[in-house]
Amino acid sequence: MLFALPIFAVTIMSWSNGYTGASVTGSPGDGSTCSNCHGGGSFATTGTVTTNIPAAGYALNTTYTVTVSFTGGAGSKRGFQLTAEKAGGTKVGTFTAGSGSQVFNSQKTVTHSSNTVTSWSFSWTSPSTNQGTVTFYAALNAVNGDGGTSGDKVITLSTAVNVLATDSFFAKQFNVYPNPASEMVTIEMPEKIATATVTIFDFVGKQVAKTNLTSTENSLDVSNLPTGTYLVSIATEQGIAKKQLVIN
Predict the structure, then answer these.
(1) Within this chain, do residues 194 and 115 fall inside the same structural domain, yes or no?
(2) How far is CA 223 from CA 10, 152, 189, 230, in A?
(3) Residue 59 lies in a domain
(4) 0.70 cut: is pTM over it?
């Protein structure tokens, strides 16, 4: 699904093996897109950028899948560029190429290496420190294959994602340990909070556990959870604390 959080910029290029001479995704940091040269096409095509980042936000130093796709009539050949930036146009995280794609710009931009497909999937690893909201910017280019730059259609997209609220002052009042865990987890609440509801979500935002807390120190059995990264949401009358939990 698409999330209105950080922004991805993708640019579809006519270069058969992808353009790595400059990052031209249309992001604030890049500025330009391939529409500076390409345009005039009337293909009945649209594009999408999707990720498996949960609606709650991205966890730190975690790898996610990003997919760029064309839908509808998409010309004879297709291409793209995509990057991720925080406010102010600074690149965030790193990309790892998948089938039919390649990375450049110190792994800060990804582009196609094959222009005969209509979809590309690759990986984005989030930063190890809280960078706030990240936006993916994308520029897609569907071309008519005549070797020129006219009669092509450029599509620009963006979508944003938030970071999980693991660094807020309220969240720091709660302790979840051991972390990583494999069997039992202890959740400690401050003395001023009498009760809370704990909900655990997996990396796609699906609820996998829920229980009530009634003391300052509470034990939770997580032995049935598969290996992975989870979001622990602790809801109280004073607010909601969110913690990251790793199951190994």
Answers:
(1) no
(2) 41, 54, 22, 13
(3) yes
(4) no
